[in-house]
């Protein structure tokens, strides 16, 4: 008998219908539970994809050190994948990310380099490149690496198409590196060009983990605005309240970016009839306990 390894369980996550939130209209609102991945987020998919495809090309070999700038979930996923595949891992992240994220990365054996919060992810990316230039390791670069969206072309998109029986009409995703929305858009529009792709971004002043509006100079190279039909902006207060509602009313314990995308899904549901709306639940809520979003 051949037994599976941990990496075999990345992907194939549940898609569940909301029962209480958004009830009362003739639409179906579905949540893709990416927190069910082994390291707890949607980023398990591109992390493993980037490593396996780089190995296949011969551009990295076990024993080397990988470097990545991250706000959290990609770093955790890469740290897990590096542990599985035998790599060192240096993660560069702003110092204001939650303590649970840091502890999880270190648990997987990663070395953390913390950057001043004022510099945001832009500074973290600059520091990662400096470490690479100093010979500390190899950057996979989730922001420019086509193996990031490819994970969703190969996995997330086909799963959604199969799980909805091809009936999906709208896909909502928070936008950070944009790998998820790029890959899922590519696949779903290849099946049905009428499927609408909606991106969730933070409103002015909001600091929602995992959701970004990038300055032009730092816009991820994998991003193609033509693949997104509509952008919606979410306040921090609305994202946090929806995150709490998901737990209280649906039993879905998720992170704040998931609350943001679900806010957008409900906006759509208020406008539509007979729609099948899928929102990505990016990760689990336990890595946000120290942020205060959940009552003590």
Automatic annotation (TrEMBL):
Enzyme class, broadest EC rank: transferase
Residues where pyridoxal 5'-phosphate binds: 73, 176-180, 257
PANTHER family (alphabetical): CYSTATHIONINE BETA-SYNTHASE
E.C. numbers: 2.5.1.47
Annotated family: Belongs to the cysteine synthase/cystathionine beta-synthase family.
Reaction(s) catalysed (UniProt annotation): O-acetyl-L-serine + hydrogen sulfide = L-cysteine + acetate
Short name of any one Pfam family annotated for the protein: PALP
Database matches in PROSITE patterns: CYS_SYNTHASE
UniProt-listed Gene3D superfamilies: 3.40.50.1100
Keyword tags: Amino-acid biosynthesis, Cysteine biosynthesis, Pyridoxal phosphate, Transferase
GO terms assigned for molecular function: cysteine synthase activity
Origin species: Zoogloea ramigera
This protein's name: Cysteine synthase
Cofactor(s) in the UniProt record: pyridoxal 5'-phosphate
């Amino acid at each position: 008998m051949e037994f599976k390894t941990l990496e075999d369980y990345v992907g194939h996550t549940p898609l569940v219908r909301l029962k209480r939130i958004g009830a009362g209209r003739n639409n179906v609102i579905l949540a893709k539970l990416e927190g069910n991945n082994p390291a707890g987020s949607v980023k398990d998919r591109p992390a493993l994809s980037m490593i396996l495809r780089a190995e296949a090309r011969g551009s990295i070999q076990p024993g080397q050190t990988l470097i990545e700038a991250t706000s959290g979930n990609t770093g955790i996923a890469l740290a897990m994948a590096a542990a599985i595949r035998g790599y060192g891992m240096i993660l560069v992240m702003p110092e204001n990310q939650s303590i649970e994220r840091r502890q999880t990365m270190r648990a997987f054996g990663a070395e953390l380099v913390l950057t001043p919060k004022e510099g945001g992810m832009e500074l973290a990316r600059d520091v990662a490149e400096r470490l690479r230039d100093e010979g500390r390791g190899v950057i996979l670069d989730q922001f420019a690496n086509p193996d990031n969206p490819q994970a969703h072309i190969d996995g997330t998109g086909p799963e959604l198409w199969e799980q909805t029986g091809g009936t999906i009409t709208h896909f909502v995703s928070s936008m950070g590196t944009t790998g998820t929305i790029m890959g899922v858009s590519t696949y779903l529009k290849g099946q049905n060009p009428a499927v609408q792709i909606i991106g969730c971004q933070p409103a002015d002043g909001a600091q929602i983990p995992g959701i970004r509006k990038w300055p032009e100079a730092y816009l991820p190279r994998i991003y193609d605005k033509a693949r997104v039909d509509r952008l919606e902006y979410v306040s921090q207060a609305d994202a946090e309240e929806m995150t709490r509602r998901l737990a209280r009313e649906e039993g879905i314990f998720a992170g704040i970016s998931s609350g943001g995308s679900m806010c957008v899904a409900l906006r759509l549901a208020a406008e539509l009839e007979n729609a099948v709306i899928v929102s990505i639940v990016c990760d689990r809520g336990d890595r946000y306990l120290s942020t205060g979003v959940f009552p003590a």
